[in-house]
Amino acid sequence: MRVLDRNPPVGDFEFVQGDVRDRSVVRHACEGVDAVFHNVAQVPLARDRDLFESVNVVGTANVLVAARDAGVAKVVHTSSSAIFGIPDSNPVTEDTPPRPLEAYGRAKLRAEELCHEAAAAGLDVSVVRPRTILGHGRLGIFAILFEFVAEGAPVYVLGRGDNRYQLVHAADLADACLRAADRSGPATYNIGTREFGTMRETIEALTAHAGTGSPVRSLPTMPARAAMRWLSTLGLAPFAPYHWLLYGESLWFDTTKAETELGWQSTRSNAAMLIESYDWYLAHRHDLDGHGSQHQSPVRLGLLKLVSKLP
User: Fold this and answer.
1) Per-residue pLDDT tens for 281-300?
2) CATH superfamily ID and name for 2-307
3) 74 in helix, strand or coil?
4) Residue range 24-75, pLDDT digits in tens
5) What are the C-alpha distances in Å from 121 to residues 32, 64, 66, 202?
6) Where are the chain's structural domains?
7) Alpha-carbon distance values, 113 to 4, 9, 63 (Å)
Protein backbone atom coordinates (compact mmCIF):
# COMPACT_ATOMS: atom_id res chain seq x y z
CA MET A 1 0.00 0.00 0.00
CA ARG A 2 1.23 3.47 -0.88
CA VAL A 3 0.24 6.59 1.05
CA LEU A 4 0.48 10.16 -0.23
CA ASP A 5 0.29 12.66 2.60
CA ARG A 6 1.98 15.70 4.03
CA ASN A 7 2.60 13.85 7.29
CA PRO A 8 4.12 10.35 7.67
CA PRO A 9 1.46 7.71 8.41
CA VAL A 10 1.52 5.33 11.35
CA GLY A 11 2.25 1.84 10.05
CA ASP A 12 4.40 0.04 7.53
CA PHE A 13 3.45 1.75 4.27
CA GLU A 14 5.26 2.98 1.22
CA PHE A 15 5.15 6.71 1.85
CA VAL A 16 5.13 9.52 -0.68
CA GLN A 17 5.40 12.84 1.09
CA GLY A 18 3.72 15.69 -0.70
CA ASP A 19 0.68 17.83 -1.29
CA VAL A 20 -2.35 16.88 -3.38
CA ARG A 21 -2.05 20.27 -5.09
CA ASP A 22 1.32 19.21 -6.56
CA ARG A 23 0.46 17.48 -9.83
CA SER A 24 3.86 15.85 -10.23
CA VAL A 25 3.72 14.30 -6.76
CA VAL A 26 0.17 13.04 -7.32
CA ARG A 27 1.18 11.59 -10.69
CA HIS A 28 4.09 9.75 -9.05
CA ALA A 29 1.85 8.40 -6.27
CA CYS A 30 -0.63 6.98 -8.81
CA GLU A 31 1.93 5.11 -10.88
CA GLY A 32 1.50 1.36 -10.85
CA VAL A 33 -1.50 1.18 -8.51
CA ASP A 34 -4.81 -0.58 -9.06
CA ALA A 35 -7.07 1.63 -6.92
CA VAL A 36 -6.86 5.15 -5.54
CA PHE A 37 -8.65 6.20 -2.35
CA HIS A 38 -8.92 9.98 -2.40
CA ASN A 39 -9.48 11.06 1.21
CA VAL A 40 -7.62 14.37 1.21
CA ALA A 41 -9.68 17.42 2.15
CA GLN A 42 -9.28 20.84 3.69
CA VAL A 43 -11.80 20.70 6.52
CA PRO A 44 -14.28 23.40 7.64
CA LEU A 45 -12.05 24.49 10.54
CA ALA A 46 -9.72 26.13 8.00
CA ARG A 47 -12.33 28.81 7.21
CA ASP A 48 -10.27 29.57 4.08
CA ARG A 49 -12.13 29.68 0.77
CA ASP A 50 -8.89 29.65 -1.22
CA LEU A 51 -7.76 26.47 0.53
CA PHE A 52 -11.15 24.85 0.03
CA GLU A 53 -10.80 25.54 -3.69
CA SER A 54 -7.13 24.60 -4.11
CA VAL A 55 -7.20 21.44 -1.96
CA ASN A 56 -10.74 20.12 -2.31
CA VAL A 57 -11.39 21.06 -5.93
CA VAL A 58 -8.03 21.43 -7.68
CA GLY A 59 -6.57 18.59 -5.61
CA THR A 60 -9.40 16.32 -6.69
CA ALA A 61 -8.84 17.29 -10.32
CA ASN A 62 -5.16 16.40 -9.94
CA VAL A 63 -6.04 12.97 -8.54
CA LEU A 64 -8.54 12.22 -11.30
CA VAL A 65 -6.16 13.25 -14.09
CA ALA A 66 -3.25 11.34 -12.57
CA ALA A 67 -5.41 8.23 -12.09
CA ARG A 68 -6.61 8.41 -15.69
CA ASP A 69 -3.10 8.86 -17.06
CA ALA A 70 -1.73 6.02 -14.90
CA GLY A 71 -4.45 3.62 -16.00
CA VAL A 72 -5.83 3.19 -12.48
CA ALA A 73 -8.73 0.73 -12.48
CA LYS A 74 -10.79 2.38 -9.71
CA VAL A 75 -10.96 5.68 -7.84
CA VAL A 76 -12.97 6.04 -4.63
CA HIS A 77 -13.56 9.65 -3.64
CA THR A 78 -14.60 10.55 -0.09
CA SER A 79 -17.07 13.41 -0.21
CA SER A 80 -19.13 15.04 2.56
CA SER A 81 -22.69 15.38 3.80
CA ALA A 82 -22.02 19.14 3.80
CA ILE A 83 -23.08 19.20 0.14
CA PHE A 84 -26.70 18.86 1.34
CA GLY A 85 -26.72 21.82 3.73
CA ILE A 86 -30.02 21.71 5.61
CA PRO A 87 -32.23 19.24 3.72
CA ASP A 88 -35.92 19.89 3.22
CA SER A 89 -36.66 16.41 4.56
CA ASN A 90 -34.95 13.36 6.00
CA PRO A 91 -33.64 10.78 5.40
CA VAL A 92 -31.30 12.02 2.70
CA THR A 93 -30.77 9.62 -0.18
CA GLU A 94 -28.20 9.53 -2.96
CA ASP A 95 -30.74 11.31 -5.16
CA THR A 96 -31.52 14.18 -2.78
CA PRO A 97 -30.60 17.44 -4.55
CA PRO A 98 -27.46 19.03 -3.05
CA ARG A 99 -27.80 22.48 -1.51
CA PRO A 100 -24.59 23.47 0.29
CA LEU A 101 -24.82 26.53 2.51
CA GLU A 102 -21.17 27.44 3.03
CA ALA A 103 -17.81 27.46 1.24
CA TYR A 104 -16.63 24.04 2.40
CA GLY A 105 -19.81 22.30 1.23
CA ARG A 106 -19.73 24.12 -2.10
CA ALA A 107 -16.12 23.05 -2.69
CA LYS A 108 -16.92 19.42 -1.85
CA LEU A 109 -19.84 19.54 -4.27
CA ARG A 110 -17.61 20.85 -7.05
CA ALA A 111 -15.20 18.01 -6.33
CA GLU A 112 -18.07 15.52 -6.67
CA GLU A 113 -19.04 17.09 -9.97
CA LEU A 114 -15.50 16.57 -11.23
CA CYS A 115 -15.78 12.90 -10.25
CA HIS A 116 -19.02 12.53 -12.18
CA GLU A 117 -17.48 14.23 -15.22
CA ALA A 118 -14.48 11.89 -15.05
CA ALA A 119 -16.80 8.90 -14.77
CA ALA A 120 -18.76 10.06 -17.81
CA ALA A 121 -15.45 10.25 -19.70
CA GLY A 122 -14.63 6.63 -18.86
CA LEU A 123 -12.79 6.64 -15.50
CA ASP A 124 -14.31 4.26 -12.94
CA VAL A 125 -15.00 6.61 -10.03
CA SER A 126 -17.25 5.97 -7.05
CA VAL A 127 -18.20 8.57 -4.45
CA VAL A 128 -18.68 7.75 -0.78
CA ARG A 129 -20.42 10.42 1.31
CA PRO A 130 -19.97 10.00 5.07
CA ARG A 131 -21.86 11.72 7.84
CA THR A 132 -19.74 13.29 10.59
CA ILE A 133 -16.79 10.92 11.20
CA LEU A 134 -15.67 9.71 14.61
CA GLY A 135 -13.22 7.12 15.90
CA HIS A 136 -10.13 7.01 18.07
CA GLY A 137 -7.74 9.72 16.98
CA ARG A 138 -10.48 11.85 15.40
CA LEU A 139 -10.66 15.16 17.24
CA GLY A 140 -10.96 18.55 15.60
CA ILE A 141 -14.02 20.36 16.93
CA PHE A 142 -14.94 17.37 19.12
CA ALA A 143 -12.00 18.25 21.36
CA ILE A 144 -14.09 21.14 22.72
CA LEU A 145 -16.87 18.80 23.79
CA PHE A 146 -14.43 16.27 25.25
CA GLU A 147 -12.50 18.90 27.21
CA PHE A 148 -15.69 20.36 28.65
CA VAL A 149 -16.92 16.92 29.70
CA ALA A 150 -13.57 15.95 31.18
CA GLU A 151 -13.64 19.11 33.30
CA GLY A 152 -17.25 18.54 34.39
CA ALA A 153 -18.27 21.77 32.67
CA PRO A 154 -21.70 22.39 31.14
CA VAL A 155 -22.07 21.33 27.52
CA TYR A 156 -24.60 22.92 25.25
CA VAL A 157 -27.14 22.06 22.58
CA LEU A 158 -29.04 24.50 20.41
CA GLY A 159 -32.68 24.79 21.33
CA ARG A 160 -33.96 21.56 22.87
CA GLY A 161 -31.28 19.53 21.13
CA ASP A 162 -33.98 17.42 19.52
CA ASN A 163 -32.41 17.53 16.06
CA ARG A 164 -31.51 14.04 14.85
CA TYR A 165 -27.80 13.94 14.10
CA GLN A 166 -26.02 10.95 12.58
CA LEU A 167 -22.37 9.96 12.89
CA VAL A 168 -20.23 7.30 11.22
CA HIS A 169 -17.21 5.47 12.61
CA ALA A 170 -13.93 5.86 10.72
CA ALA A 171 -13.57 2.06 10.54
CA ASP A 172 -17.04 1.73 9.00
CA LEU A 173 -16.22 4.44 6.48
CA ALA A 174 -12.98 2.65 5.55
CA ASP A 175 -14.92 -0.57 5.12
CA ALA A 176 -17.40 1.16 2.79
CA CYS A 177 -14.57 2.61 0.71
CA LEU A 178 -12.89 -0.78 0.38
CA ARG A 179 -16.15 -2.39 -0.67
CA ALA A 180 -16.79 0.39 -3.19
CA ALA A 181 -13.34 -0.21 -4.66
CA ASP A 182 -14.17 -3.89 -5.19
CA ARG A 183 -17.35 -3.06 -7.12
CA SER A 184 -16.85 -2.16 -10.75
CA GLY A 185 -18.72 0.76 -12.25
CA PRO A 186 -19.27 4.33 -11.02
CA ALA A 187 -21.68 4.73 -8.10
CA THR A 188 -22.46 7.01 -5.15
CA TYR A 189 -23.12 5.83 -1.58
CA ASN A 190 -24.31 7.62 1.56
CA ILE A 191 -22.73 6.23 4.74
CA GLY A 192 -23.86 6.65 8.35
CA THR A 193 -24.71 4.63 11.42
CA ARG A 194 -28.11 2.97 11.69
CA GLU A 195 -28.23 3.62 15.47
CA PHE A 196 -28.58 7.29 16.28
CA GLY A 197 -30.92 9.66 18.03
CA THR A 198 -31.10 13.33 18.86
CA MET A 199 -28.14 15.54 19.59
CA ARG A 200 -29.18 15.77 23.24
CA GLU A 201 -29.53 11.99 23.57
CA THR A 202 -26.10 11.42 22.07
CA ILE A 203 -24.36 13.94 24.31
CA GLU A 204 -26.22 12.78 27.42
CA ALA A 205 -24.99 9.24 26.74
CA LEU A 206 -21.43 10.61 26.78
CA THR A 207 -21.85 12.64 29.97
CA ALA A 208 -23.42 9.68 31.73
CA HIS A 209 -20.46 7.51 30.71
CA ALA A 210 -17.91 10.14 31.76
CA GLY A 211 -19.43 10.59 35.20
CA THR A 212 -17.86 14.02 35.65
CA GLY A 213 -21.13 15.79 36.37
CA SER A 214 -21.32 17.75 33.11
CA PRO A 215 -24.88 18.99 32.65
CA VAL A 216 -26.36 19.28 29.16
CA ARG A 217 -27.93 22.71 28.77
CA SER A 218 -29.94 24.40 26.04
CA LEU A 219 -29.07 27.68 24.35
CA PRO A 220 -31.55 29.72 22.31
CA THR A 221 -30.71 28.83 18.74
CA MET A 222 -30.53 32.17 16.95
CA PRO A 223 -28.55 34.08 19.64
CA ALA A 224 -26.18 31.11 20.00
CA ARG A 225 -25.52 31.03 16.27
CA ALA A 226 -24.89 34.76 16.24
CA ALA A 227 -22.47 34.42 19.15
CA MET A 228 -20.58 31.56 17.48
CA ARG A 229 -20.25 33.61 14.32
CA TRP A 230 -19.11 36.70 16.21
CA LEU A 231 -16.53 34.81 18.26
CA SER A 232 -15.22 33.13 15.13
CA THR A 233 -14.94 36.43 13.24
CA LEU A 234 -12.89 37.89 16.08
CA GLY A 235 -10.67 34.81 16.24
CA LEU A 236 -11.83 34.06 19.79
CA ALA A 237 -13.32 30.61 19.12
CA PRO A 238 -12.59 27.83 16.60
CA PHE A 239 -15.96 27.76 14.86
CA ALA A 240 -16.63 27.74 11.12
CA PRO A 241 -19.89 28.47 9.27
CA TYR A 242 -20.47 24.73 8.97
CA HIS A 243 -20.76 24.52 12.77
CA TRP A 244 -23.17 27.34 13.51
CA LEU A 245 -25.32 26.62 10.49
CA LEU A 246 -25.65 22.84 10.92
CA TYR A 247 -25.00 21.89 14.57
CA GLY A 248 -28.62 22.40 15.53
CA GLU A 249 -30.17 20.89 12.38
CA SER A 250 -31.35 17.38 11.56
CA LEU A 251 -29.60 15.44 8.83
CA TRP A 252 -29.39 11.70 8.42
CA PHE A 253 -28.71 9.35 5.56
CA ASP A 254 -30.68 6.45 4.22
CA THR A 255 -27.90 3.84 3.86
CA THR A 256 -29.99 1.23 2.04
CA LYS A 257 -28.04 1.51 -1.21
CA ALA A 258 -24.66 0.83 0.45
CA GLU A 259 -26.15 -2.04 2.43
CA THR A 260 -27.76 -3.58 -0.64
CA GLU A 261 -25.08 -3.08 -3.28
CA LEU A 262 -21.96 -3.33 -1.11
CA GLY A 263 -23.13 -5.59 1.68
CA TRP A 264 -22.01 -2.85 4.07
CA GLN A 265 -23.27 -2.48 7.64
CA SER A 266 -22.55 0.07 10.33
CA THR A 267 -21.09 -1.46 13.49
CA ARG A 268 -21.37 1.27 16.13
CA SER A 269 -24.07 3.60 17.42
CA ASN A 270 -23.71 7.34 17.83
CA ALA A 271 -23.26 6.93 21.58
CA ALA A 272 -20.68 4.16 21.26
CA MET A 273 -18.61 6.22 18.82
CA LEU A 274 -18.66 9.31 20.98
CA ILE A 275 -17.73 7.33 24.09
CA GLU A 276 -14.88 5.55 22.30
CA SER A 277 -13.49 8.84 21.02
CA TYR A 278 -13.81 10.49 24.42
CA ASP A 279 -11.96 7.64 26.13
CA TRP A 280 -9.18 7.92 23.54
CA TYR A 281 -8.99 11.64 24.19
CA LEU A 282 -8.69 11.13 27.93
CA ALA A 283 -5.85 8.68 27.42
CA HIS A 284 -3.95 11.03 25.10
CA ARG A 285 -5.02 14.57 25.99
CA HIS A 286 -1.69 15.50 27.60
CA ASP A 287 0.34 14.11 24.71
CA LEU A 288 -1.43 15.90 21.86
CA ASP A 289 0.80 18.50 20.26
CA GLY A 290 -1.40 19.80 17.46
CA HIS A 291 1.07 18.91 14.71
CA GLY A 292 -1.10 16.34 12.91
CA SER A 293 -3.98 17.01 10.57
CA GLN A 294 -6.87 19.17 11.74
CA HIS A 295 -8.97 16.04 12.23
CA GLN A 296 -6.31 14.49 14.46
CA SER A 297 -5.38 17.56 16.49
CA PRO A 298 -7.33 19.32 19.23
CA VAL A 299 -8.52 22.80 18.36
CA ARG A 300 -7.51 25.73 20.52
CA LEU A 301 -10.38 26.64 22.81
CA GLY A 302 -9.75 30.38 22.84
CA LEU A 303 -12.44 32.24 24.78
CA LEU A 304 -14.29 28.95 25.23
CA LYS A 305 -11.75 28.08 27.93
CA LEU A 306 -13.47 30.68 30.10
CA VAL A 307 -16.89 29.30 29.19
CA SER A 308 -15.77 25.88 30.44
CA LYS A 309 -15.32 27.39 33.92
CA LEU A 310 -18.96 28.43 34.19
CA PRO A 311 -20.90 26.62 36.93
Assistant:
1) 999 888 775 544 444 444 45
2) NAD(P)-binding Rossmann-like Domain (3.40.50.720)
3) strand
4) 999 999 999 999 999 998 887 766 789 999 999 999 999 999 999 999 999 9
5) 21, 11, 14, 43
6) 2-307
7) 23, 29, 14
